[in-house]
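Hi team, as promised in this morning's meeting, here are the two structures we talked about. I've kept the exact order from the run log so nobody has to guess. The first one is mostly here for context; it's the second one we should focus on when we meet again. Sequence first, then the predicted structure tokens.
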Amino acid sequence: MNTEYEFEPSFTLMTAYLEPGESIKVEPGAMVAQSNGLEMKTGMSGGGGLGGFLKSMAKSALGGESFWLNTFTAGDNGGWISMAPSAPGDIKTFDIEPGQNLFMQGGSFMACSNNVQYDTKFQGAKSLFSKEGSFFLRAFSEEGNGKVFYCSYGAIKEYDISPSKPMKVDNGHLVAFTEGVSYGIAASGGMKSTMFGGEGLVLQLTGEGKVWIQTRNIESLADRLIPFLPQPSQ
């Protein structure tokens, strides 16, 4: 699957070019435009049957994703489909191999090749103190190499984590990380800084792997907008 990126990094439009018979799974609402000759089928994001229904419910209720997933398949002449995030932001590709896992925050998944699956993963009791939520999305492939397309609010920056190079990330700026990275909850500074410095608790990332962060925080934007919204009448 060949892909093309335009208008990076904060208003990215991604176009996937499909060979005849090739498919791509896309989060509802991400499609911007497409060529003629693509067949679209809508199904539960967790697959068919009772197990698929339960997985779809978990993704929707816990992972911040849609219950449904659209699959676009090219006809005999191939085709293309353009996609974009719901918020102004960037799109990146992760080339996933069998046995690998990519973890994403809720709302970051946009599309994947047809052989990639994704579900939710509980982050343990430590996550109860994190605004990031108790569940991440886990993308994986059991049938050969595949691609995962994830998106952000704002631009995406990549970091390498190693035992000698841990880092702290504000909860609302983490987008995705590879399996070798683990996280815990840490104070942003001393007691006074943590309580009054506007950062509170942050994520302490350790281990070895890659981390992707976003330059904007949609929760912070919402906090700034709420005072200007009309209040319900009493």
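And here is the second protein, the one for discussion:
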Amino acid sequence: MRSPYPLPHLFFLFISLILLLAFIHIGILSIAFEKLGLSQGSIFILLFLSLIGSSFNLPLFTVRSELPPMDMMMPMPFQLGGKRAPAPGRTIIAINIGGGMIPTLFSCYLIFNQGLSYSSVLITIILITGISYYFSRPIQRLGIGMPILIAPVSAALIAITINPSHSAPLAYISGTLGVLIGADLLRLKDIRKMGVPFAAIGGAGTFDGIFITGIVAVLLA
């Protein structure tokens, strides 16, 4: 049966749908960052740096681990500081620039520029850290995973309860740093047991893991 639509028309329709989804995605991100007090120029710079940074991982240190099975060996993502192959029985721990480092630095910026009390920041981070640790689990071949909405919904609810007038920045900070500590740093002992040669803090990149947790938390707060 012949399609009623010519191939060029279907191709144009497909490209238009992709562009529409991209504009919606960027629009949602813009709304979230505007709630944090950023200008349009600052939003563009932050998103651009996050997108570029998502392709790079910065090695931090190595930990002892079990030897990975042969079928788990895989090429490592791009790294800064040259190519470093892990020694047998070692796992390289890195941080993803776009998905881990930039959200962490931005959280520090919000802490010192949004008029938040340090006690409220500390309480929310501790609570989200505990929640993230409880719900996160090691997943073979992938790393540490957890239900995507647990941390942002919890961060938003806790931020609204503790400081309604500054719930957006508080939700972003606690969602970002809470997941970083609870689902990444405190799970290093589980990474050791998985025998993977490489593990990156910050999920798979910009729009995953820590980054997306912070964005969703702000939208809900």
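Starting points for discussion:
The radius of gyration is 20 Å.
Confidence is low (pLDDT under 50) at residues 1-7, 68-86.
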